[in-house]
Every structure is written in structure tokens, then in C-alpha cells.
Automatic annotation (TrEMBL):
<feature type="region of interest" description="Disordered">
    <location>
        <begin position="173"/>
        <end position="195"/>
    </location>
</feature>
<protein>
    <recommendedName>
        <fullName>ArgG</fullName>
    </recommendedName>
</protein>
């Protein structure tokens, strides 16, 4: 006996979701306060006030919501803040991924420079850093930037929870698959031609 049509239609309409960046993904890719302090100390850069960045962004989002409260309903405010916070979290996650790649390149260049038999990895002319040193310094800069954006994202997420009363979760949008619609239309035309 054939299965009911409603069951096969429901399984055919299974929609894949495109997952957005989460705060946990940011935590895994961006340096924390201890690592940012170690980077700053090792490379002689300024120590970033991560707590200040987080608090500033939390206040910024709260003040923005207060300013919009008369013009937006509760649901509209939630959707607006969802997008704003998602942008902060996505930016921090992207910076964390870029930082991870920069660290990998710095490690590779440093390992190659340790090999005395390689002429191309020798130090540059007097007064210039080696390629490996430049890559390490670049990775350090990217680490400080990623940490700063991590703290901004944490502030935005905290503000969302304070305003909306729920923990922020990334919006999951359906994956667009335009090829599937074209295949379906082509199949319909072919079936129509067959009679």
C-alpha cells in the first residue's frame, strides 16, 4: 500500500539552514584577555581595555534600543537587535578566523627560518625584519583586533539579553538552492511534452 501523500510532501520539503556565527565560535577563534595581554607584552603593543570595549558596546546597543523604543514594536525591536548583534558576532568570528590563518602562516615562516640551509628565509637587509618576523607581528596585530571585536560582540550579546529578555541566538536562514527550482521546472516541461 502506498504511503500518504502528505508524509512524502513533508519529507520533500526538508529545508537546509545556513547557520550563523555564534558567540561560542567567537570564543574559540578570538584571543581571550589573558592571551591578548600576552601578545601585547611579547610584541610591545598597547594593552587593550577589553572590559571597557565590552561595556561601551553594551551601553551603545541599550541606548540605541531606548532611542528606537517609541518607533518600534516589541517584535520589530527584537528583529532589529537580532540583526545588529549578528553583525557584531559575525565580524568578530571573521576576525578570529583571519587571526588563526595569520598565526598558521607565522608558525610556518618561523619554522622555515629555523632551517639554516634555506637561503630564501634569511633575514632581510640590515635594518629590515625577516619575513618570519613580519608575519609574527602581523599575526599579533590581528590577534589584538580579534580580541577587541570579541569584546564588542560580547557587549552586544549582553545588551540583547538585557533588552529582549532572551539569550541571543544567530538567525538561521534557509539555504537558497536556485538550481533545484530550475530542475523542477525543466522536469515539468519535459513531462508536459511527453503528454
Amino acid at each position: 500500500m502506498a504511503k500518504p501523500a502528505t508524509q512524502s510532501r513533508q519529507s520533500a520539503r526538508l529545508v537546509q539552514l545556513r547557520k550563523g556565527a555564534t558567540l561560542e565560535m567567537v570564543r574559540l577563534t578570538c584571543p581571550d584577555a589573558a592571551q591578548a595581554t600576552a601578545i601585547a607584552g611579547s610584541f610591545g603593543t598597547a594593552v587593550i581595555d577589553g572590559d571597557g570595549i565590552r561595556d561601551l558596546h553594551q551601553r551603545l546597543i541599550i541606548e540605541t534600543a531606548d532611542g528606537l523604543s517609541e518607533g518600534l514594536g516589541e517584535r520589530a525591536m527584537q528583529i532589529h537587535l537580532q540583526r545588529i548583534v549578528g553583525a557584531y558576532v559575525g565580524s568578530a568570528h571573521g576576525a578570529g578566523q583571519f587571526y588563526s590563518r595569520a598565526v598558521t602562516e607565522a608558525r610556518d615562516a618561523t619554522a622555515k627560518a629555523a632551517n639554516d640551509a634555506r637561503d630564501e628565509d634569511l633575514d632581510g637587509p640590515v635594518g629590515y625584519d625577516s619575513a618570519a618576523q613580519r608575519k609574527r607581528e602581523f599575526a599579533a596585530d590581528m590577534g589584538i583586533q580579534a580580541h577587541s571585536l570579541r569584546m564588542a560582540a560580547q557587549g552586544a550579546v549582553a545588551a540583547y539579553e538585557q533588552i529582549v529578555g532572551e539569550v541571543w541566538k544567530p538567525f538561521e536562514r534557509p539555504v537558497e538552492n536556485p538550481g533545484q527550482n530550475l530542475d523542477r521546472k525543466a522536469a515539468e516541461q519535459q513531462m508536459a511534452a511527453l503528454g
